[in-house]
Amino acid sequence: GRRRRKRRRRRRRRRGAMAAAAAGAFSLREVLDAFRRCVTEQREVLLEPYLSGWRGLIRFLQSLGAVFSFISRDAVAKVALLESHLQHHHFQSLQGLVQHELAAGPAALRARSDSGCRTVLRLHRALRWLQLFLEGLRSGEPRTSVLCTDAYNASLAQHHPWVVRKAATVAFCALPSRDAFLEIMNVGTAEEAVAMLGEAIPYIGDVYGITQELFAQHKLLDLP
């Protein structure tokens, strides 16, 4: 009986996530499911669920309004670029993509501004910022502007020119409260949102860690 109840609950959750997705609203559950499906037993990062997770995160950024548009616009462009790479080459995994592009030689890879590796690297840096920010939201610091600035300074800031950094920190001051953020998660009460963040963040962290290691191994972390 317990197993059946669990299955029913899972089905209900999935239906809820699908309804939220259809409505174009952000759903933390959908992001959690995508990143959970991302990593195979062989520790490969599957690109289909990775992009699906990113589409959810973009909805999250967009639901916060203009504050994050400088990041969400870039993420939208990068996701579209990766999708077209996938259609042309039918890569399953991030590892397959890296191998394919490295086969042309490091110099050729560095010369291409639209390479899959460079595109993933830009998303990878933004993912780190989101991971840190979501961790902060979960931990309970009430001042979201502080949380967001700290997460930004520890991740994306070092890759942005001064003008963008300045604009970002000013924009973060206009962020809604922690409660408003937890409501945007679309998973029920604040407690439920915090619990789901606790579930989602390790999956996001896992994908981030594998990507970081892969790119470090092939000296791709500083692609121009």
Automatic annotation (TrEMBL):
Gene Ontology terms describing biological process: negative regulation of interleukin-1 beta production
Catalytic activities: N-(9Z-octadecenoyl)-sphing-4-enine-1-phosphate(in) = N-(9Z-octadecenoyl)-sphing-4-enine-1-phosphate(out); N-(hexadecanoyl)-sphing-4-enine-1-phosphate(in) = N-(hexadecanoyl)-sphing-4-enine-1-phosphate(out)
Keywords, sorted A to Z: Cell membrane, Cytoplasm, Endosome, Golgi apparatus, Lipid transport, Lipid-binding, Membrane, Nucleus, Transport
The family this protein is said to belong to: Belongs to the GLTP family.
One MF annotation (Gene Ontology) recorded for this entry: ceramide 1-phosphate binding
Top-level taxon of the source organism: Eukaryota
Compartments, as annotated in UniProt: Cell membrane; Cytoplasm, Cytosol; Endosome membrane; Golgi apparatus, trans-Golgi network membrane
Domain Glycolipid transfer protein, first and last residues per copy: 46-186
Organism: Dicaeum eximium
Annotated PANTHER family: CERAMIDE-1-PHOSPHATE TRANSFER PROTEIN, GLYCOLIPID TRANSFER PROTEIN-RELATED
Name of the protein this chain belongs to: Ceramide-1-phosphate transfer protein
InterPro entries linked to this entry: GLTP_sf, Glycolipid_transfer_prot_dom
Its membrane topology: Peripheral membrane protein
A Gene Ontology cellular-component term: plasma membrane
